[in-house]
Write a structure and sequence with these properties.
313 residues, alpha/beta, Rossmann fold, 2 domains, four-stranded parallel β-sheet, 13 helices, 10 strands, globular
């Protein structure tokens, strides 16, 4: 659990970088009263700017001297590149070979150097917190406590706009987002239920919770590229299992329908991971009452978005 004092400090530290995103009511045919936390409206169209900014700004000048490094499916890479540009530092970002062109282009526009690597090498960098052959301050996309504290500022904002929601649904990639948000909620709204949501094609947390320990699950890369993995990070699983009330999965079809609904009803463009929480809420998995869905990001290739909007995926 991340201390609430660290999350509050992070909010002050990143206030000039991260946007205080709105919480809006979704008009939808559902039993629950659904609210959307629109992290798509961040400067990099993803919540990742929060954690990246907090981690980099807490680091000392000597740590940052050689530049910034991360391994990312795309959004953390964009956040790290944004911070590196602000500081006049080089940034190197390793992305898996199936990373969307939209995310890669966005990193390069900010001056970041992108290294496309096989998925196994990319995952190894995340497990070891280092990128072979590259020097610099490694900003871990998931398990850095400063990154998680930055993510936790989302929880503070949710509670200020909607005190004591019944449930909050959070997409799960590696666990850093749900750990940060859940830490804030446990401290300030302990009655609120917290659930993680993964794509059914790569539901490592669901598998680990069912088994009681980290375990390998079937993994199928998909257009929901910011969430899902073949296994959980053991240290993150130890944190997450103590904080969440459970985990759900959403099919690719359910997720596409959620992305389409967001575009139709709110004119918000969400990437695959950004649609997961809403997909679970629309399926009734979080029950009735006031349900908050974290729409984590909106960086999706137009070639993927077009068939989703036309219901031709």
């Amino acid at each position: 659990m991340i201390a609430i004092e660290e999350i509050e400090a992070a909010r002050a530290r990143i206030a000039d970088v991260a946007v205080r995103t709105p919480l809006v009511r979704l008009q939808a045919d559902a039993d629950a009263e659904i609210w959307l936390k629109l992290e798509t409206l961040q400067p990099i169209a993803s919540f990742k700017i929060r954690g990246a900014a907090n981690a980099v700004r807490r680091a000392g000048a000597e740590q940052l001297r050689a530049g910034l490094v991360t391994a990312s499916a795309g959004n953390m890479g964009r956040g790290v590149a944004w911070l590196a540009r602000e500081l006049g530092l080089p940034a190197t970002i390793a992305v898996p070979d199936h990373a969307p062109r939209t995310k890669v282009d966005a990193i390069e526009r900010l001056g970041g150097r992108v290294l496309r690597v096989p998925y196994a090498d990319w995952w190894r960098a995340i497990e070891t917190s280092r990128l072979d052959g590259v020097e610099g301050f490694f900003v871990h996309p998931v398990s850095d406590s400063d990154v998680m504290a930055g993510n936790g500022t989302i929880g503070l904002e949710i509670l200020e706009d909607l005190p004591e929601p019944d449930a909050v649904l959070v997409p799960y990639g590696g666990g850093g987002l749900v750990t940060g948000i859940a830490s804030a909620l446990r401290a300030r709204s302990p009655r609120t239920r917290i659930y993680a949501v993964e794509p059914a094609t790569a539901a490592a947390l669901n598998g680990a919770l069912a088994a009681g320990e980290p375990t390998k699950v079937p993994f199928e890369p998909s257009w929901v590229d910011g969430s899902g993995s073949p296994s959980v990070l053991p240290d993150m699983f130890a944190r997450v299992r103590e904080l969440v009330d459970g985990a759900f999965t959403a099919s690719l079809e359910e997720t596409a329908a959620a992305v389409r609904l967001l575009a139709e009803r709110t004119r918000i463009i969400a990437e695959g991971a950004g649609g997961l929480a809403l997909a679970a809420a629309l399926a009734g998995k979080a029950g009735n009452g006031r349900v908050v869905c974290v729409v984590s990001g909106g960086n999706i290739d137009l070639s993927k978005l077009a068939p989703i909007l036309l219901d031709e995926l």
